[in-house]
Amino acid sequence: SVSHDDPVRTSYSQNRMWLLAQMDGAAAAYHMSATYYLHGQLDVEALKLAFGEIVARHGSLRTKYQVVDGVLMQHVNKLQSDVSILKVIMRTTAAETEIALSENVEKTFDLANDILLRAVLVDVDGKSYRLQVTVHHIACDGWSMAVLTRELNELYKAFAAGGEAPTLADVMVQ
Q1: Among residues 74, 80, 57, 78, which one has the least CA distance to residue 138?
Q2: Fewer CB atoms inside 10 Å of the end CB: C or N, the chain?
Q3: Helices (H), the chain
């Protein structure tokens, strides 16, 4: 993605990924998902803040893809303060948990409108949680997912301790 104010052409790889995502039944195949098992006390508000900071730092997650005059273009949207990335589900049955996590992975991203990251936090029993993060592959690859995970961890720790966002390494490529 880019940080320009005006839309710019997409790369060949983005064109290919966008085209494949438009095909019926293919959309979820291009979602990258990771599920984390968390135990102990969890500060949900700190986690929400951490996700907000991730989206603020990574323009690729806010990039919208639209066809303009027959050409696929990308545009990085400005961050909206009311965007909620984390869906919290309170104590559910094991079957309901699996359904919620499956729906998170399978739900299609609208590449023209959606933030390209979403997360579901299931409170299993007040001390155990399942956090599932799903990103569209047009915005993230395996290496980038590791970066997002590391940053989410650092941001969460800082916010949970009552601090400000730590200084993270500059985002060089998006």
Answers
A1: 74
A2: C
A3: 12-22, 44-57, 94-106, 142-160
**Length of the chain, in residues:** 174
pTM beyond 0.85, yes or no: yes
Could you say which residues of the chain have pLDDT below 50?
1-3, 174
Rounded CA-CA distance 7/67 in Å is 10
Question: Encoding tokens for residue 66?
Answer: 């639209």
pLDDT in tens, 111-158: 998 899 999 999 988 899 999 999 998 988 877 888 899 999 999 999
Q: Nearest 5°: phi and psi at 151?
A: -65, -40
Q: Give the N- to C-terminal CA distance of the chain in Å, as an integer.
A: 5
Q: How many CB atoms lie within 10 A of CB 91?
A: 11
Do the beta carbons of residue 172 and residue 147 sit within 8 Å?
no
Asked whether the CA dihedral 148, 167, 40, 107 is positive or negative, the reply is negative
DSSP 132: E
**Cα-Cα-Cα-Cα dihedral of 165, 168, 173, 174, to 10°?**
-20
Q: In what order do the strands lie in the sheet with 117-123?
A: 31-39, 128-136, 117-123, 86-89
